[in-house]
Write a structure and sequence with these properties.
This protein has one domain: Rossmann fold. By secondary structure, it is of the alpha/beta class. Helix content is 44%, strand content 14%.
Length: 273
């Protein structure tokens, strides 16, 4: 399905973004790789070529999604180099590990800028190109935390709830143009999201917590996501742990969810070395 398609992925330098990039490359797609770390993007580009030596035209496009002034030029670069954008996956994001009372407002602003406004800004720039072509797929990496509030992640949960609402609303607006919108809802996936998660003072947590360390492999996650996109699923839950049960338990027995999350208020455990 994605043979010869152009797939633009933000947050492509590691984790789910990297796994999606190599997964799409293996299916014959031309992948546009965006994140802030150009050296890591080049490493991912080489990994994409290794997965499918027949396609070598992957584009490394360093980008900070919060630099709104740079986004029009980035879209124009992709249009010039690739002709069109068939799939946009908004995967850039940062996590949080701090209690609300300990979290500076600058941290909340940073979470909203990266996890919400950056995704909206890039999507706004890409949509006219997709509308012109009469087709396209737009996806966002949300989270189970976009459905269920979790302690130590107040800002992150707020951001992911916002993404679920925004892209659900957008789906109805762009369907008339042949564009589909997809929300990806991961549980615990084994990436560095907790390592780089912001603490209350804005510093990174610096280690992988136990829940993330025991999560689903990123490549396995990417396979579920790509298959879900190929089938046109509006919402794609992906994970293997008990956190995935929270998606239906929140609807059927919200009181149990609130009791469960209240028991989580303790410092996240460090994964064993």
């Amino acid at each position: 399905m994605y043979q010869g398609k152009t797939v633009w992925i933000t947050g492509a330098s590691s984790g789910i973004g990297e796994a999606l990039a190599t997964g799409f490359a293996a299916r014959g797609a031309k992948v546009v790789l965006s994140a802030r770390r150009e050296d890591e993007l080049e490493r991912v580009r080489q990994a994409c070529i290794e997965r499918n030596p027949a396609e070598t035209g992957h584009l490394v496009l360093p980008l900070d999604v919060t630099d709104y002034d740079a986004l029009p030029a980035a879209v124009e670069t992709v249009k010039t180099r690739c002709g069109r954008i068939d799939v946009l996956i908004n995967n850039a994001g940062i996590g949080q590990r701090s209690l609300c009372v300990d979290t500076a407002m600058d941290v909340y602003r940073r979470l909203m800028d990266v996890d919400v406004l950056g995704q909206i800004a890039l999507t706004r720039e890409v949509l006219p190109l997709m509308i012109e072509h009469g087709s396209g797929q737009v996806a966002v990496t949300a989270s189970v935390a976009g459905k269920v509030g979790v302690p130590y992640r107040t800002g992150y949960c707020a951001a992911k709830h916002a993404m679920m609402g925004f892209f659900d609303a957008l789906r109805g607006e762009v369907a008339q143009h042949g564009i589909s919108v997809h929300t990806i809802v991961p549980g615990y996936i084994r990436t560095n999201i907790s390592v780089s998660a912001l603490q209350g003072d804005g510093s990174e947590m610096g280690y992988m917590d136990k829940a993330i360390a025991g999560g689903m492999d990123a490549d396995a996650c990417a396979e579920v996501v790509i298959k879900g996109l190929g089938r046109g699923k509006p919402e794609i839950p992906v994970g293997k742990g008990t956190e995935m049960h929270a998606l239906w338990l929140k609807r059927l027995a919200p009181g149990l969810i609130f009791k469960w999350t209240a028991k989580m208020v303790r410092k996240p455990e460090k994964a064993s070395e």
